[in-house]
Input
Amino acid sequence: MQLRYATNLDVEQYIESKAWSDAKLTHCPLHPKGGCKFARHGTYSRKFPDGVKIARWYCSKGHVTFSMLPDCLCSRLPGTLIEVEDVINQMENSSSQEAAVENIRLDIGLPGALRWMRRRLFLIRITLMLLIDLVTSLGDCQPTVSSFRSVLGTEFVLPQLRMFASPYLDILPPPLGFGPRPERKKSKKSYFQHKTGTDPP
Ligand SMILES: [Zn+2]
Output
């Protein structure tokens, strides 16, 4: 299960200071009264960015692993929230998705790059739409990064939104939230279904 590690470190600072060692989880989220042999369970590494580790705990009674994801990193996608935001921003400011791809991914072919980009756009659009519904002060936003940037008055909105939307992270999709991935073909209801399960390694 993914939990928020509230920190305003960017990813370079997170790696440099090995901030995963400072992550704290004082009691088991499932058994606040204890008695479940809850203990620190080392770290796991992520391939991207290189050198990133995530602090982990394990509840023996519930057979559940908890990992604390810092605010700079994506959930269930490699890389940082700022990298995803850059992609969305380029898409919003390009004449077409094909034109945006040329600035973003030259390492893979066009169909693959479009799929890669559209997956991110789809997830972030849904997240922004949900936040507009959930958070009264965001009610006037459009579901675009540029609209959220101007309403929140910040250069990068996604790391800010991890903080701002912390009560809703369990229902918001990745890479911002810790909820399930929405499926394109199903009804809207599936966005809110909360699946439990362990994190990918
Ligand atoms: Zn427990």
